[in-house]
Amino acid sequence: MANSRTPNMRSLSLQDEAQYRSFFDEVRQSKALRRVLIFLAVLGLVTFVPAWLGLTTPALPVSTYLPLHTALEFSAIAIAVIIFTVGWSQTSVAPTLRLVVVATAFFAVALLDFSHTMSYAGMPDYFTPNSAEKAINFWLAARMVLAVALLLIVLPFSDRVVRQGAFFTVLGLSFLYIVSMHVWFLVFPSTVPRTFIQEQGLTPFKVSVEYLVIVLHLCAACLVTVRYHSLRGFQPALLFGALVQLAFSEFFFTLYGNPYDLYNLMGHVLKITGYAFLFRSFFYEAVTEPYRQLMRSQRQLKDSLADQHLSAIAFHTREAIMITDAGHQIVRVNAAFTDITGYTEKEVLGCNPKILSSGKHDETFYRELWRCIQTFGTWSGEIWNKRKNGEVFAEHAVINAVYDPVGEITHYIASFSDVTDRVQAQEQVHRLAFYDPLTGLANRRLMIEHILTAQADAERLGNYSALLFMDLDFFKKLNDTLGHSKGDSLLQQFAGRLKSHLRSTDTLARQGGDEFILLVRNLGTDKATAALHIEQLGEKILETVRQPFQLGQQTYGITVSVGAMIFGKEHHTVDDLLSSADLAMYQSKEQGRNRLHFFEPEMQEHLTKRTALEFDLSVALTKENELELFFQPKVDTLGVVQGYEALIRWNHPEQGLLQPGDFIELSESTGQIVALGRWVVQQVVSMQLHNLTTGMRMVPIAINVSPREFLEPDYADWLIEQLASTSVDPRWIELEITESALQGNLSIVQERLESLHRAGFLIAMDDFGTGYSSLSYLQHLPLSVLKIDQSFVAHVVDRASDRAIVKAIIALAKALDMKVVAEGVEDSAQSSELVRQGCDLFQGFFWSKPVPWAEAARLAEQPPR
Ligand code: C2E
Ligand code: CA
Ligand code: CA
C-alpha cells in the first residue's frame, strides 16, 4: 500500500538539506572528511616541526636513493595511468569537462613523471645526458599541468557536459604539451631557466614555481570548502585532502638541499598518497556508487513488489476500500465496496465520492472532516451514506491522505464497513430509554435532562423558560367506553396537534397516561412577557384540542387542563418545577377544567399543607378521639326522623374541627379513604348495635361510600362480614354511592351492588342529577333511594328549570319504585315545594345540621311537627 505520511513528517530532500548545512557541519557529520583532516594535521606536524627547528635531513647514498625514488615514481605513474584510463572510460558514461580535464592531465602527468624518473642523475641517460636539472624540468612541467587542471575542475563550469569528441581534442592538446616539453628540455636545454645549481642547491626560479604550484593547490582547496555542497561527481572531502597533500608535497620540494635527501623522498611519498586520494575522490563514486545504487534499487524493487502483493491482499478485505486522486476522483474501489454500495468499479471510476452522499449531514460536518484530513492526514468516524438503490446506510469510515516524498497529497484512501445494524440498535436503545413508544415524544427522563439544560441557560443568560403540564379531561371515560386502542389513537393525535405549535427548542414529553409535559425555552429575560407568551400558547393548545378528534368512524370531543410554571434563574429542583406545574394543572381541573392555570406561590403553600395534612390524617386514623361522626336526620313529610346520614368530622389537634371538604378529597387521592371508610362503617355498626340493645327506635343510618372504597375488590364481602358477626340487620345500614362509582366496569359494579342488596343493605344514589351517566343504569341497579342533589333543591323555589328537574327526578323515582330524598333543604318554602312535588324524605339545616349522636338521637324521640 502506498506510504502515507503526515505533512509535518515530510522529509527534506537532499538539496534542501544541503542548504542548511555548512562545511563545518559537514566536518562534524562526515566520517571521511574527519579522517582526512586528522591525517592532514599529523602530516602538518611532521612537516613543519623539523622545518621550524631548522633540521637538515641526511642525504641517502645514491645506491639506496635511486631504486627507492624509481619505485615511488613508478607507483605514482601507475596511479596516474589508472586515473587516465578509468577517466577515459568514464567519459563514455558521463562526459563532463571535469572528467576530460582530469583524465588528460594525468596522461601528461604520467608521461612527464616517467621522463622525470628516467632523467634522474644516476639513471642511465635518457636521450641526452641526465642531470638533476633535467629531472627537475620534467618534474615542474608535470606539477604545473596538474595544478592548473585541479584548479579548473573545482570551478563551476567543469560540471558542463561535453561532446564525446572533446576528450580526444583535449588529449591531443595534452600530447602536444608533452611533446613540446620534451623537445624543449632535450633539444634546447640551455633556454630553460636554471632550477638547480650544484653546490648551491635549488634556484629561486625553481622554488618560485613550486610555490606557485602550492598556491594553485591551496586555491583549489579553498574553492572546495566554499563550494563543498555544489560539487558533484566526486567526493569533495577526499579532493580537499589530496590538494592539501600535494601542497605539502611541493613544500618538501622547496626544502631539500640535495636531490637525494629525506625531504625529497617524503615529497614523493606524499605525491603518491595525494594521487591515491584523487583516484578515490573521482572514481569511488563513479565506479563503486553505481553498483551500490544498483543494489539499493534492486532491494527497493523487491520491497515494493512485496508491498504490492500485500496491498493486493489487503485490497480484498471485507472492508470497502475507495481510492481517489488528489482531485477527489475515484481511481479504484474493491469488491467489498461494490457489495456495500451496490456500485461497480466501472460505474464509479472518475466520479466524486459525493455520489454516495445521503444528505443526512450538513456542510459543517464535511468541512470539519476535510479540515481534519488536511491537518492530521486522517479522519475516522461514522457517516450516513446512500447505496445505489437509494437505501441510506451507516458506515464506519477511516480516510487517510497519501503523500509523495515532497509532502504533497497524491491520493485519499477511504476504508469503511457497514455498521447500519449496530447504529440502528443503538438508536433503538436510545429511543427506548428516552422516548415514549406510543407517541414518539420524549419521555420523562429526557424531559428532565432538557429541564436541566434550560436551567443552565437561565443561569447563564437570565432567560425564562416555562413548564406546561397537560392532562386530558375525563380521558378515563373515553378508555372505558370506546376502548384503549381509541384512547391510544387520541393520545397520538393530541401529540401530533401539539407538535405543530412548537418551536425547535421546545420539548414535548408524555409522562404516562394522558399526562403531557411541555418545556418552552428562551422566553426572554422579562417574566411578564414570558407569562404573556405562555398564556397565548396555552390558549392555542386549548383551542386545538377542542376541535373534535376522529377516532375511526366516531368523532370525539375532549378538553385539556393545563398548568403552567414559569422559571428563571432562581433555584428550583427539577422535582419542584414538575410538581408545581402539576399542581397548577390540578388547579385548572378544580376550576372547571378546559383551561390554563399558572402556578402561584400560594399554591405551593397549599401543596405543603396538603402534605402535612396527609401525615396528620394517617396519625388520626390510629387514634381514638380525633375522628368523629356527626349525624344529620332525614325526616318525612310529618317531620318524623326516618333515618340519619353519618358525616365525618376531624378534631385536628392544631387546626380545630375540620369538615370533610378539608380532607376527604385528599384522603381519596392518597388512598387513606379506604381505612377511613372502614372506620366509619365500624362506628356506625357499633352505634346501631348500641341502639338495638338500648331499645331505641331503629332507623337506617346512611354511610357515604367514596368511589375509591367501593371499587376495592373485597368491599362487599368485607361489609357483609362486618354485620354477620353482630346482630345488626343490614337493613339498618344505608349505603350512599355517587354516580362516579359507576364508572369502570358496570357489570362488576352491578354484581357488587346485587350482592349487597341481597344481603339486605339499602342502597341510595347520592347527588343525583350532577353526574353524566345515562339514566338507563337506574333500572338495572338495585337502588332503593334517589337523593336529589342540593344544588337543585337550593333553587327549587326561584328557578323554574331546577323545579322541573326536581319534578322529573321525583317522577322517575316513583316510576322505578324508589324513595326520593331531597338534601340541603334550608327553609320552609323549599320544604313545602318539595312536599307539593311528592318528595318522600327531607334532609337539611331546616330540620337540623349534622350533630353529634347524643343530640341527633334526641331528635328521633321528638313528636311529628
Ligand atoms: P354529601 O354526602 O352530599 O353530604 C351532605 C352535605 O351537605 C354535608 O356536608 C352536610 O353537612 C351538608 N348539608 C346538609 N344540609 C345542608 C343544608 O341545608 N345546607 C347546606 N348548605 N348544606 C347542607 P358535609 O358534612 O360537609 O360533607 C360533605 C361531603 O363529604 C358529603 O357530601 C360526602 O360526600 C362527604 N362525606 C362526609 N362524610 C363522609 C364519610 O364518612 N365518608 C365519605 N366517603 N364521604 C363523606
Ligand atoms: Ca351523602
Ligand atoms: Ca349529597
UniProtKB/TrEMBL annotation:
PANTHER family: BIOFILM ARCHITECTURE MAINTENANCE PROTEIN MBAA (PTHR44757:SF2), DIGUANYLATE CYCLASE DGCP (PTHR44757)
Name under which the protein is recorded: EAL domain-containing protein
Organism this protein belongs to: Salinispirillum sp. LH 10-3-1
SMART domains assigned: EAL, GGDEF, PAC, PAS
Domain EAL: 610-864
Family matches, as SUPFAM superfamilies: EAL domain-like, Nucleotide cyclase, PYP-like sensor domain (PAS domain)
Any single Pfam family the record assigns to this protein: GGDEF
UniProt domain PAC: residue ranges: 379-431
Residue intervals of the GGDEF domain: 463-601
Listed InterPro entries: Biofilm_reg_signaling, EAL_dom, EAL_sf, GGDEF_dom, MASE3, Nucleotide_cyclase, PAC, PAS
Alphabetized UniProt keyword annotations: Membrane, Transmembrane, Transmembrane helix
Segments forming domain PAS: 306-350
Residues passing through the membrane, by range: 36-53, 65-87, 99-116, 136-155, 167-188, 208-226, 238-256
